[in-house]
Amino acid sequence: MPEPQAASPRTPDATRRSERSRRAIYDAALALVTEVGYARTTVEGIASRAGVGKQTIYRWWPSKSAVLLDAYLDLAGQAAAEAQDGQDGAEAAGLPDTGDLAADLRAVLRATVDELNDPRFEAPTRALTAEGVVDGELGARFVERLLEPQLQLYVDRLTAAREAGQVRDGVDPRVAVELLVGPLTHRWLLRTRPLTHAYADELVEYALHGIAPRQAVEGA
Amino acid sequence: MPEPQAASPRTPDATRRSERSRRAIYDAALALVTEVGYARTTVEGIASRAGVGKQTIYRWWPSKSAVLLDAYLDLAGQAAAEAQDGQDGAEAAGLPDTGDLAADLRAVLRATVDELNDPRFEAPTRALTAEGVVDGELGARFVERLLEPQLQLYVDRLTAAREAGQVRDGVDPRVAVELLVGPLTHRWLLRTRPLTHAYADELVEYALHGIAPRQAVEGA
After folding, report:
1. CATH number at residue B107
2. Which of A3, A216, B168, B173 could, after both became Cys, cross-link B155 (CB 3.0–4.6 A)?
3. Which positions in chain A touch B158 (Cβ < 8 Å)?
4. Could you read off the pLDDT of B194-205 as tens digits, one per residue?
């Protein structure tokens, strides 16, 4: 059993009740944003659906966007935990590193494709991303708390690959990661084409080896 | 002077009045979506701001999203026309083709960076893109009428480059274009990092030559 927040001065019963309320609030927030969109989701609506008082929400979060962001981070954390069940425990914190960069990137991008295609994640991810596109402050928090930590895992893996001679000297891993994540996100957000494992594999191939002829370096 | 719609049976005066109304409606639609967002923009609000009756709008467009999409396409058309002023007329319809693929792609991506950073385009582009992310039907029309025709220009240029031996045989130009446009859009929409000419140049370099060592083909 996971230990409840150790620093809390509450009794075990109060802690359990808090945890139940928090879970109900997260579930209600994600369900609402999925059903009616960000603009029409309200703290009142979340409270009512979760069966708690509005003041319970305001005691823990300053605003609708703060609840939604925490609810979404909680969901993303669940997804990460599920993904780790299929991995060795030792690699849980980062991207896989089998020594084969292409294979590792294919595995990660395929898992991302599966997550983006999962209805549980798709609607809330779309709702929050769309709001971040027009609301710079929410977008910045979304990027800082969720996106950049994810991108950093790629940066770490690509940095290790560069040290192992599998990424060219002089390549900036923070730019390189966008070559993988950018097209995937673009295709998913704008729904231009189906998001498939085959596409994930193609992206890895193109990003690693480029689209120019490989002997271009000799002709340059 | 551009000729008004030649097929119209109207008198010249009526055509001029229609054209003035259409322009006022487009301007009002873009101003409103920029100021209050997509959800709170209404046909009534557009009509009132444009100084026309609601029925004038409904005579020409079936819905708010249809007006906004046309207004946005008109704006994008103006941007394209402005960009062409700096180009040879003969190349106006497609991407530049000087024979140097890297230079041509850098020029196009730099121009895209400038457009995305231009406040006239930024707010309405964000508003419509965000709405398309959550509203699949609007998103599909946005992609069909605006995005895919733009991507096709890249596909044509990359196909010509493949025929000229500057793109590897077997590379799918429709996937390759996403390696350029995807990261740019990702960075802009999510505001992860500044969108600069230097970034555009880096993307072209990485997309053409990949991030793996160039001699990787010999070791494979």
Report:
1. 1.10.357.10
2. B173
3. 211
4. 999 999 999 999
Q: Would you call B42 helix, strand, or coil by DSSP? A: coil
CA of A171 to nearest chain B CA: how many angstroms apart?
6
Residues A23 and A108 in one domain: no
Contact B177, B158 (CB under 8 A): yes
pLDDT tens digit sequence for A159-200: 999 999 999 999 999 999 999 999 999 999 999 999 999 999
Mean pLDDT across chain B: 88
B94 and B153 Cβ atoms separated by less than 8 Å: yes
Residue with tokens 């509450």: A10
Who's near A22: CB < 8 A, 6+ residues apart?
Answer: A60
Residue B185: domain span: 94-219
Cβ separation A217–B217 shorter than 8 A: no
Provide the number of structural domains found in chain A: 2
CB contact under 8 A, B210 and A207: yes
Contact B173, B179 (CB under 8 A): no
Check residue A71 and give its pLDDT.
Answer: 95
* Best CA proximity match to B73, nearest among B110, B22, B35: B22
Q: Is the ipTM of this complex over 0.90?
A: no
> Which residues of chain B neighbour A181 with C-beta distances below 8 Å?
186
Range from A35-39, A103-107, B11-15 that averages highest in pLDDT? A103-107
Residue B87: pLDDT over 70:
no
Instruction: Return the pLDDT at A78.
Output: 82
Q: Is the pLDDT of residue B2 over 60?
A: no
CB contact under 8 A, A148 and B202: no
Based on the fold, state whether residues A170 and A91 are members of the same structural domain: yes
How many other CB atoms are found less than 10 A from the CB of residue A1? 3
Q: Please check the confidence at residue A220 and state whether its pLDDT lies above 50.
A: no
Our CA-based measurement puts residue B60 at a distance from the nearest CA of chain A, in whole angstroms, of 27
The answer to whether residue A77 sits within a structural domain is no
Task: Tell me whether residue B166 is in a domain.
Answer: yes
Residue B139 lies in a domain: yes
Distance of residue A176 Cα from the nearest chain B Cα, in angstroms: 7
B138: left (phi over 0), alpha (psi -120 to 50) or beta: alpha
Buried b / exposed e across A152-183, counting CB within 10 Å, b at 16+? eebbbbbebbbeeebbbeebebbbbbbbbbbb
The pLDDT of residue A38 is 87
* Helix intervals (H) in B37-100: 43-50, 54-60, 64-85
Pair of tokens at residue B45 = 């609000």
